[in-house]
Amino acid sequence: MLSPIWMAGIGTACSLGSEPQQAEDRARRLHAALAALSQGRVPIRLFHPLEEIAVLAAHEALADAGVPTPYRSADIGITLGVEEGIDGIKARYYRGVLRDGPLGASPISFPFTTPNTIAARISILFDLRGEMLTVGGGSLSGAHAMGLARQALREGRSTMVLAGGVTSVEQEFLDAVSRVSRPGTGQLGDGACLFLLESRRREGKGTGGGHLLGYGQGFGVNDVQDAIQACLADAEVLPGAIESVRTAAVSDWRVAVEAIRETGVTAAIVRSPSSGLHSASFPLAVAEAVRERRSAHAAPVLVLGVDCLAGAAAAVVQGGG
First-to-last CA distance in the chain? Predict the structure, then answer.
């Protein structure tokens, strides 16, 4: 069995709808994070909610793991899944160009029409100099980013990786996808979840979240079955050992449930409250599962995400300790 990946730190920022208390809490946490990063020098200004929640989640994941910032080393890489927020920014940017010509091309928003801008901002602000990858694959972007981070750690390309997903679903994005009749478009809201993943636990460092035991992907007609079977095989866990299943973004609930049962997994299935948050939905579901089962002796949990383009991703996670 390959050694499990240690989740040394978890950082999340999530809001669905408009709850004033939730917004105030996030603003307070972000202000504290930016103050710590600026260290009394020129204040750090962020452009978009997508950037804000990504920076907040990164700060809290690193702090949870006991990593000082700015880090100033190539020991930590970044793999980030991001899609919808960038699409919303692009929609507004090109709408301005179409309306006003070259004068409508905002020099402030232009860099954010490139998906890797968010990961680059995290890299610069926290001085993380390791390998950096951005994944733009819709609702499974965050899942694929975690899979790539796991691969980098197991192959020894990185010592630690900050991995997960971030999204900001705005009305421009929902309007665009409705025109092409794309199902499962989600709902308005922001979400980010980043893990500091390590191939082995650093002695005495971080409170820790849990372990990523296995990861798998599937595509085509049997996408869910293939993803779950690959994940269970990677984790060397039998279907009957799974305590519960938590679903992230799922395009068709009934079909997904039937496919899960066909793999031999009979545990209770719970829909994640963050399932509408696209790129961030899978990492957020993983964080929910881990935080509910902090004990290292808790049975493993299966997390599943399915998109509308015949793709699926699955992870087996277990509590820390």
Answer: 20
Residues whose CB is less than 8 angstroms from the CB of residue 250 and which lie 6 or more positions away in sequence, other chains included: 184, 256, 271, 275, 304, 305, 306
- Ordered by where they begin, the domains of the chain are 5-198 (3.40.47.10), 210-319 (3.40.47.10)
pLDDT tens, position by position, for the chain (321 residues)? Answer: 567 899 999 999 987 765 667 778 888 999 999 998 888 788 888 988 899 999 999 999 999 999 998 898 999 999 999 987 888 888 888 888 999 998 888 888 888 888 899 999 999 999 999 999 999 878 899 999 999 999 999 998 899 999 999 998 877 777 777 776 555 456 678 899 999 999 877 765 555 678 999 999 999 989 999 999 999 999 999 999 999 999 998 878 889 999 999 999 999 999 998 888 889 999 999 999 998 876 656 789 999 999 877 799 999 999 876
Beta bridge partners of 163: 79, 195
> Is residue 48 within 8 Å of 112, Cβ to Cβ?
yes
- Taking the whole predicted model, whether its pTM rises above 0.90 is answered as yes
170/134 Cα distance (integer angstroms): 20
